[in-house]
Amino acid sequence: MSRRLANAHELGLCLCHSCGLACDMTDHPHQCPRCDAPLHVRKTNSLTRTWAYLLAALVFYIPANLLPVMNTSMLGSGADSTIIGGVLEFWEAGAWDIALIIFIASIAVPGIKFVALSLLLITTQRGSHWARKQRSKLYRFVELIGYWSMLDVIVVALVAALVKFQALGDIEPRAGILFFGMVVVFTMLSAMSFDPRLIWDNPQPEEVMDGIASH
Questions:
Q1: Which CATH number is 90's domain given?
Q2: How many CB atoms lie within 10 A of CB 148?
Q3: What's the mean pLDDT when you consider all of the chain?
Q4: Domain encompassing residue 5
Q5: Does 74 lie in the same domain as 6?
Q6: Domain final residue, candidates 10, 25, 41
Q7: Second label for 161, Cα 20 to 30 Å away, from 4, 9, 21, 184?
Q8: Which residue has the higher pLDDT, 81 or 138?
């Protein structure tokens, strides 16, 4: 049988989260010798904190979609707009590009993050060996799209600036935008709390047998 290669934990190594240095835990068990950042073999209570942040984001996601995010007053008449209502209004007005940006940033991205993080959490807790490489890539994808989650808030700010610049009306934020901002914050905290190394902690049965045979 082929010999199983030792992992970083078995070699006493730990990757610094700050500078990326592979640190010898036997010589520097508490901090990185290059940047003095605290060293953690695994993120503390990773799954528990990730679940907590994700559930908090789901709770805030409901009022973020039901409550209005802005109030627009044009020539004396005003109306509140929810996220979905704003997408439809921009689409009907011919601003399909802004409507598409709001839809992707406010509906598609949070939905993808909820599904992806839930999948990662459930499979990791069960110690699943299914598609571990693909799940690691999925986590990196979640981290990548997380940086674009504030696009909706930025679009609302830009629209407010345009309306005020034209001096034809006024626009004011509503409670929905606050709840959506909380959704963005908690989903980012959830992704940051998840430790992707947990995906690889449980070796496959054939890897265990190879390790026993090598001794």
A1: 1.20.140
A2: 14
A3: 77
A4: 1-41
A5: no
A6: 41
A7: 184
A8: 138
